[in-house]
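Two quick folds needed for the group meeting slides. Do the first one here.
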Amino acid sequence: MATKIRADVYDFLCACLRNKPPEMPTYTSIDAVANRFMQLARQAQRYNLLHANVGLTEAQEKREARMEQEFFRLCQQCGWQGVTGGDPRGYALKILFPDGSSNSWGGTSHGWGIPQ
C-alpha cells in the first residue's frame, strides 16, 4: 500500500528541496532536515498553547529557549531565515526562503509556515 502524505507536508518538502543549500546533495538529507523542522514546530506550538493558557514554568522557558536556538541554528546552516510566532492560532515557526515562496496570508514577508 502506498504511503499517503498530507498536502501541506508535501508542499513544505518541495519548498525545502527548491531552496536546499548546494552542500546537501541528496533528497534524504533535506528530508531529515524538513522532518526536524516539523518536530520543532510541534514543540513550539505546544509552548505557545501553554504560554497562552497557563504560562510557562522556568524549566519550560529554558526548554523553549533551547528549542528556538536549535531552530535558528538549523535555519542558519541551511542559509534560510527563521521567524517565530507566539500566537497559538497561527504557525509557530516560519522560514523565509531565498526564493520568496510563501504559504501564509502575509505573503513573502511572512514566509513559509512549517506544518506540524
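Then this one, please, same format:
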Amino acid sequence: MQVRAIFYVRSCEITGTDEGRPIGTVNLTAAARGPYKHWAKWTPSGTLSIGTVNADAFAAFVERVGRDVALTITDPTPADLDDAPAAA
C-alpha cells in the first residue's frame, strides 16, 4: 500500500553549508493551498520538518516555498539500497 499526501512548503531554514551551498530544515504543512486545496479533505493533518544535508534536495525545496508538493510514502525496496550513498 502507498499513501499519497499533498503538503504545502511553508519555509526553509538554512542551518549550514556543504561545499559552500546552503543546507537546512524544510518545514511542510499537511494542508494544501492553491489548486490542490481540495486534497486537504483527504490529507492527514499535521506538520513535517525535514533536515537535509543534501544541498540539491534543499535547493529543490527552496524553489517550492509557498507551493504544494506531493509526497508518496511506500515501503523501501532492495533497489533503494543500490542507490544509497556509500558509508563514510
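Slide caption for protein two: The chain has one domain: 3-75.
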